[in-house]
Amino acid sequence: MLNRREFLETITAAAIVPAFAGQDAAKNEWGSPVFDLHFHVRPQPANNLTHLDGAGVTKANLLARAVAVDQVKAVMAEAPGRFTWFSSYDVTRPDAEQVLTQAVKDGAQGYGEMKFHVAADGPEFRRIYALAADLGVPILIHFQEVDHFPNEGTWATGYAKTFDGILKAYPKTTFIGHADAFWANVSADYHNEAAYPSGPIVRGGLTDKWLGDYPNLFADMSANSGNNAMSRDAEFTADFLKRHQDKLLFGSDCSCADGHGGGVSQSNNPAASRMAGKCVARETLGLLKRSASPAVFQKIAWGNAHKLLRIPS
Ligand SMILES: [Zn+2]
Ligand SMILES: [Zn+2]
Fold first, then answer.
1. Helix or strand or coil: residue 106?
2. 82 backbone dihedrals φ, ψ, rounded to 5°
3. Measured in angstroms, how far is the CA atom of residue 15 from the centroid of ligand 1?
4. Helical ranges in 90-222 per DSSP H
5. In this predicted structure, what is the pLDDT of residue 24?
6. What separation in Å is there between the alpha carbon of 90 and the centre of ligand 2?
7. Which of 88, 133, 137, 250 to pair with 60, CA 20 to 30 A apart?
8. Of 26 and 202, which is predicted with more confidence?
């Protein structure tokens, strides 16, 4: 049962998010349609829909290498209206700007997942930040400073030390933060000790502060990193979801086979063993549902992504 405040929030949210209109919330097990921002395209078209349908996900954003455009088109043709896509390409290559410009001309609605072994404030990434602003598309970045397995290497490094400088230098670029370093830094006591720190959150962490300070920073809640951060401290989580309700985007980054935890959900990542046998989409949707009001849940699971990507309802 909803209390009166929750009921009012629900009807208000439904009125201000046009994409919600026409969707029958009662038919969805989560009480709201769901958009998965972080879904790596699977080679067999049917396997994409198996995960969406299994996890109760309405639509998903396919993350694909620029070379996989035909694969993306095939998946989209199979289920019209259920997919958008982001394109990624090695930022160290000399033709990166050219290839990523072409991707937007081909229909990509953003760049991601951008996961490369270079500094987040280095010249390779900076030219793509500028390009994303010029073309008006968001850029989704994987930040990671701690290996998941020996010699993995780090990705988009320097988040804690340098990224506020980037947010200031590129005010017209829409950044979507993701992965270990982004989420571990919700706690003020984090200094790159572990991929997935545990225990109560120390208030005042960089990611929490920057989401409040910079209108051009958004958060992708996918993967073990997002789920782990939101599982540490229930009181913090409830408050965090409320404060940043317009900046948070549900995503799964789940590679399980069926949307119920079959197969491997966090592949190539032994450090994420807490998700073994579980579907990350289901785990995080359940966690968000327990931690937020229905109106806030609906923004994070559905409304915010539609606004950010300007997807017609
Ligand atoms: Zn990632
Ligand atoms: Zn799954």
1. coil
2. -105, -5
3. 33
4. 96-105, 123-135, 159-169, 180-184, 206-213
5. 54
6. 27
7. 133
8. 202
**Residue 26 CB burial class (10 angstroms; 0-12, 13-18, ≥19):** exposed
Q: What is the pTM of this model?
A: 0.91
Of all helices (H) and strands (E), which one includes residue 139? strand 139-142
User: What does the pLDDT read at residue 3?
Assistant: 47
What are the tens digits of pLDDT across the range 76-100?
999 999 999 999 999 999 999 999 9
Instruction: Of 244, 248, 233, 245, give the one whose Cα is nearest residue 9.
Output: 245
| Rounded Cα gap, residues 9 and 12, in angstroms | 5
Ligand nearest to the CA of 40: 1
Query: Tokens 């190539």, residue?
Result: 268
φ/ψ (deg, to 5) at 254: -90, 135
Q: If you measure from the C-alpha of residue 5 to the centroid of ligand 1, how many angstroms do you get, rounded to a whole number?
A: 36
Q: How far is the centre of ligand 1, averaged over its atoms, from the C-alpha of 69 (Å)?
A: 20
Q: In which element (H, E) is residue 243 found?
A: helix 234-243
In whole numbers, what is the pLDDT of the chain averaged over residues? 92
- Token code pair at residue 129: 């930040």
